[in-house]
Design brief:
The chain is mostly helical and 190 residues long. It has helices at residues 36-40, 42-61, 64-94, 96-99, 102-128, 133-161; strands at residues 2-4, 10-12, 30-31, 34-35. The protein has one domain. The chain has a two-stranded antiparallel ribbon. It has a two-stranded antiparallel ribbon with strand order 3-4. Strand 1 (2-4) and strand 2 form a beta hairpin. 30% of the residues are buried. The protein binds protoporphyrin IX containing FE. Residues 27, 35, 37-38, 41, 44-45, 81, 84-85, 88-89, 91-92, 98, 104, 107-108, 111-112, 114-115, 148, 151-152, 155-156, 158-159, 164-165 line the site of protoporphyrin IX containing FE.
Length: 190
């Protein structure tokens, strides 16, 4: 929606920001306030990178060690990705401010496509072993890397731009009357 400010230039505002639920961004699936999804996503991300590396190493050397390593990277990455997706899906359904952000839905769609590609990649390797790698294993592992980039970008937007699951000033320790500003890390005037 566009309005004119006092200088006559157009300003845009988001009408859904007036809805109090838009600002409810506290993580519901967390350990001591730390979102579990953020703890788990490192595994499928590392699995996808390891898989792409192992496939290239197999292509380059022909050593079957890399085909076995790729099988474990794809299976481990997929299994841990499913756990991460469960935590992420629960956050999406339970946190009203997350559901109201487009980045959350772009992230969820990219992440689900990523899981589908990882499942296909793992099942192909289970059925065909090292023969699966050239060319389809390699194509799928590099496609997964691209999807990790897209999903991770939108996931990062949720945290670093929209501050999903972030404890903001005015909560917890900042409300402790015994604490002076100079006691808090990063708040010291010097
Ligand atoms: C394997 C797949 C997935 C990957 C690699 C992934 C990756 C990420 C990353 C990197 C972040 C930012 C967190 C940080 O920087 O520490 C994030 C946040 C988030 N993701 Fe995912 N994600 C995946 C699956 C999903 C799915 C399927 C959903 C929902 C259906 C989802 C919902 C969320 C939500 C709500 C956040 C905000 C932070 C939080 O509440 O934990 N994610 N994700």
């Amino acid at each position: 929606m566009a309005d004119k400010d006092s200088a006559g230039s157009e300003t845009f505002h988001n009408p859904s920001a007036a809805d109090p639920a838009y600002h409810d961004l506290d993580s519901r699936i967390a350990l001591a306030g730390h979102p579990i999804h953020a703890m788990l996503v490192a595994f499928p991300i590392a699995g996808s990178f390891a898989l792409a590396f192992c496939d290239v190493a197999y292509w380059w050397t022909g050593d079957p060690f890399w085909a076995r390593a790729a099988l474990w990277a794809s299976g481990g990455g997929f299994a841990m990705g499913c756990l991460a997706a469960l935590a992420g899906a629960a956050e999406l359904l339970l946190v009203p401010g997350v559901r109201r952000r487009a980045a959350a839905w772009s992230h969820a769609v990219a992440a689900m496509v990523l899981l589908g590609v990882m499942a296909a990649s793992w099942s192909l390797r289970l059925q065909q072993g090292a023969e699966a790698i050239l060319p389809w294993g390699l194509i799928l592992s590099w496609l997964a890397l691209g999807l990790v980039g897209i999903a991770g970008w939108h996931g990062g937007k949720l945290v670093f731009e929209h501050q999903v699951g972030v404890s903001l000033p005015g909560t917890e320790e900042d409300n402790d009357p015994a604490l002076k500003p100079s006691d808090m890390k990063g708040n010291s005037p010097s």
